[in-house]
């Protein structure tokens, strides 16, 4: 095909996944990734998506790690030196500039004029007797057995 559009393109964040392999096997001159899912500051995932759009623009994963990931992460630590922070900012800026021709970032405000107003409704519904019993059983037994093992019991109690 002349043109490939990948909606929900954030699923291409892992080069080893079957979806990424299948999409990368499609030969095309033009590719677009659309995603409404914010990227989670994971530069490896970012590399995978950019690599789908412009193969080797950022180099191999090893090159990308050495040139961008390591210096950027080194400058984000609490004990980073001023040199580390300066290098981090410089590498982040270089990366941003490199991607300016193929990455367009927009926040939700770009869509607000095209969307109808959002209305939220909160409905309070009383639980039935059986629902109350099941909920209480869950609180008394399942949260202690399962969530305590994962260290999540405190969050349930506070909720």
UniProtKB/TrEMBL annotation:
Lineage: Eukaryota, Metazoa, Chordata, Craniata, Vertebrata
Name listed for the protein in its UniProt record: Alpha thalassemia/mental retardation syndrome X-linked (RAD54 homolog, S. cerevisiae)
Locations listed in the record: Nucleus
InterPro entries in UniProt: ARIP4-like, Helicase_ATP-bd, P-loop_NTPase, SNF2-like_sf, SNF2_N
GO MF annotations in UniProt: ATP binding; ATP hydrolysis activity; DNA binding; helicase activity
Domain Helicase ATP-binding: 1-56
Source organism per UniProt: Homo sapiens
Chain's gene name: ATRX
Keywords assigned by UniProt, alphabetized: ATP-binding, DNA-binding, Helicase, Hydrolase, Nucleotide-binding, Nucleus
PANTHER family in the cross-refs: RAD54-LIKE, TRANSCRIPTIONAL REGULATOR ATRX HOMOLOG
Main localization (coarse): nucleus
GO cellular-component term (any): nucleus
Superkingdom classification of source: Eukaryota
Similarity comment: Belongs to the SNF2/RAD54 helicase family.
